[in-house]
Design brief:
This protein has 10 helices and 2 strands; from the N terminus they run ααααααααααββ. By secondary structure, the protein is an all-alpha fold. The protein is about 70% helix and about 0% strand. Strands 1-2 form a two-stranded parallel ribbon. The chain binds fe (ii) ion (2 copies). The site of one fe (ii) ion has 5 residues, from helix 9.
Length: about 250
């Protein structure tokens, strides 16, 4: 499948493209450090979100512990400045199989999709870090932008709606990331451009994985809920935003 075929469903799904003003700002060489630092942390957050869903809804206690162990070296790096790209290289794979909780329908399906997704996000984390190290861009634990918080804070607070809402938010974040990688690929240097295009393939599938799970789990048609989050997402992307980050709004 070529890139335009991968992107077509993403463009159809999202209500608006990334504003030109954001792409113009992202092109400025002085923004590259913040873009990569934020991207690195987004990859970790994507893995953490998927892991939280797995631990809360799909795996038993032993599986939950194995998942925490898997993430630890990456969190040690991000929050405690321990390790580097070389030390994380062998931590991308989960060392054991996870069993689904017998009382949870779809638990094996959730595990299958989410374990693969986490492995890919951790591999992306490692790849971003390698690029930063090669370019002498230091790692900084920078604050998160408003985007993901804005979506998550609109999630219902009761079960099972909260899970469905979080899966829809996951799909939106993945889809927007994909759309931004494609937009950035046109305006950055060849090495970065190839890297962003390589990420398109996995992020495009992640978006669909989240939506499929949301539809499986929900007892009702989730179309109105998806529309609600799509409008909110488009507003976060199109409204003025002081803080320039990977998913930020219109630069001011
Ligand atoms: Fe990723
Ligand atoms: Fe992803």
């Amino acid at each position: 499948m070529n890139y335009s075929e991968l992107l077509a469903p993403i463009h159809q799904f999202l209500l608006c493209p990334t504003p030109q003003a954001w792409i113009k700002k992202a092109q400025q060489p002085e923004q590259l450090a913040v873009l990569l630092q934020d991207h690195l942390l987004c990859e970790l957050k994507a893995a953490q979100t998927a892991m939280l869903l797995l631990r809360k809804y799909a795996v038993d206690k032993a599986g939950s512990m194995a998942l925490l162990e898997w993430l630890k070296p990456f969190e040690d790096f991000a929050y405690r400045f321990i390790g580097d790209a070389a030390s994380l290289r062998n931590s991308v794979k989960l060392s054991r199989d996870l069993a689904g909780r017998p009382d949870v329908p779809y638990s094996d399906d959730i595990i299958g999709k989410m374990v693969l997704l986490i492995r890919e996000e951790l591999h992306h984390f490692y790849q971003v870090l390698e690029i930063m190290q090669a370019r002498d861009i230091p790692y900084r634990n920078i604050s998160a932008g408003r985007y993901a918080k804005g979506l998550i804070s609109a999630c219902k607070t009761h079960e099972p709606q909260i899970l469905v809402d979080k899966l829809i938010c996951g799909a939106l974040i993945e889809a927007r990331s994909c759309e931004r990688f494609a937009a950035l690929a046109d305006v950055v240097d060849t090495e970065l451009s190839q890297f962003y295009l390589s990420l398109l393939r996995s992020e495009a599938r992640h978006f669909d994985d989240y939506l499929t799970l949301a539809r499986q789990i929900s007892k009702t048609d989730i179309t109105p809920r998806i529309q609600h989050f799509l409008r909110l997402e488009a507003d976060l992307i199109q409204s003025p935003d002081q803080d320039f980050k990977f998913h930020s709004g219109l630069p001011v």
